[in-house]
Specification:
The protein is α/β, with parallel strands linked by helices. It contains 16 helices and 10 strands. β3, α1 and β4 form a beta-alpha-beta unit. α2 packs across α3. The chain binds iron/sulfur cluster (2 copies). The site of one iron/sulfur cluster has 15 residues, from α15 and α16.
């Protein structure tokens, strides 16, 4: 395992981190705790969850896992988040989180999911920073962090305020071009940088031909996608949402056989990436509250196929019919209320795409 500095906090974190958002059998607490133990035995010491992954179940199984890690004297850092903004709500939330996680303090506590700079301004007006600072003074949290789905220049602006000690954001071989600017602030403010969605929400293994530039001889797309991130010297942790023990073994194997590229080799690989991947839906589902009950992420995933594959419309229709089994005509139920576009983390023109899909069907 490789360990890197988490910004200027003095903490050394594992380059491979454990994300608690994808457990295959979340109700099997013993299995989930065993997965955490196996990862920790492999050297993973960064464990990230949230109060809304499988409801509160992910935090609950993390509590069981942490108790087991303590019993076995395996070191760990606990990271979680809050979407609350008002002092009393945050206080209630963190008390419940500490109980669920079965720990006395949270190492990395995140202001969760900043969706726009306006959204951040509004949370500041609610006094969120004062509340976080007070929690830190009281020793309930160790470091004040932020998680965001903003694009690179917006994240850079957010971080340059200098109020955070670390950041969690999506970064991978598919979106690195639009996220790279965030690292200007990471370097300038000496922040911890944790990246999520390392395989682009499945886009990378689903489209290996588009990411051949990441692959070196003998590497599969998953290994190549992870190692591409590990080559980035400003990344502290690459968070993988493990579904099963098998996923953990794959990631540990990728780490075991990892040979860093030189900077020149990395630049050469990046220069062979010809697609910008701009406008690709990441499947984050923040838009998924349509009053017309349109399954937006599924339709946008199908539209991804049109953007990514040379078969275009045919690939999009096949994805709708064969994978999602939803009719193209269903996209026509959109009444253009704009709710989803306001929530979309990637600023995708959802209404226009739904119109296109309905017409193409
Ligand atoms: S704009 Fe259309 S798809 Fe989006 S929330 Fe409104 S009705 Fe649903
Ligand atoms: S359309 Fe936007 S908000 Fe919805 S899943 Fe895709 S990227 Fe996320």
């Amino acid at each position: 395992m490789i360990y890197r500095d988490y910004g200027k906090t003095g903490k050394k974190v594992s380059l491979l981190g454990f994300g608690g958002m994808r457990f295959q059998h979340i109700d099997d607490h013993d299995e989930c705790a065993r997965m955490m133990v196996r990862a920790a035995e492999g050297g993973v010491n960064y464990f990230d969850t949230a109060p809304d992954y499988f409801g509160v179940k992910s935090e609950t199984v993390f509590g069981k896992g942490f108790a087991e890690l303590r019993r076995r004297r395996l070191p760990y850092f606990a990271a979680t988040k809050t979407f609350k903004t008002k002092a009393a709500d945050i206080r209630r939330e963190i008390e419940a989180q500490l109980k669920r996680l079965d720990i006395g303090a949270i190492d990395f506590y995140h202001v969760w999911c900043i969706t726009s700079l306006d959204n951040w301004a509004s949370r500041k007006r609610d006094g969120i920073l004062d509340t976080f600072r007070k929690l830190k003074e009281e020793g309930l949290i160790k470091h004040i962090c932020v998680s965001s789905h903003l694009i690179g220049d917006e994240i850079e602006t957010l971080l340059m305020e200098g109020v955070f000690e670390g950041v969690l954001f999506g970064y991978s071989a598919y979106n690195f071009k639009t996220r790279e600017k965030a690292f200007n602030a990471v370097r300038a403010k000496r922040l911890g940088a944790v990246v999520m969605n390392p395989l682009g929400g499945g886009i990378i293994p689903q489209h290996p031909e588009l990411f051949a530039w990441t692959q070196r001889p003998g590497e599969n797309p998953v290994e190549a996608g992870l190692r591409f991130l590990w080559d980035h010297g400003d990344i502290s942790v690459t968070l993988v949402g493990f579904r099963s023990g098998e996923d953990i073994e794959c990631a540990l194997k990728a780490m075991e056989g990892y040979k860093p590229r030189t900077e020149a080799e990395l630049e050469d690989a990046k220069s062979r990436s010809t697609s910008s991947f701009e406008g690709i839906c990441t499947g984050c589902a923040y838009c998924d509250e349509c009053p017309q009950e349109i399954p937006i992420p599924q339709y946008m995933d199908a539209y991804n196929q049109k953007l990514l594959k040379k078969e275009g419309d045919a690939a999009m229709k096949e994805r709708l019919g064969m994978h999602w089994t939803i009719p193209a005509s269903g996209a026509g139920k959109c009444v253009a209320c704009g709710l989803c576009e306001g929530a979309c983390t990637q600023h995708i023109p959802i209404i226009e795409r739904l119109e296109y899909i309905a017409r193409a069907g």
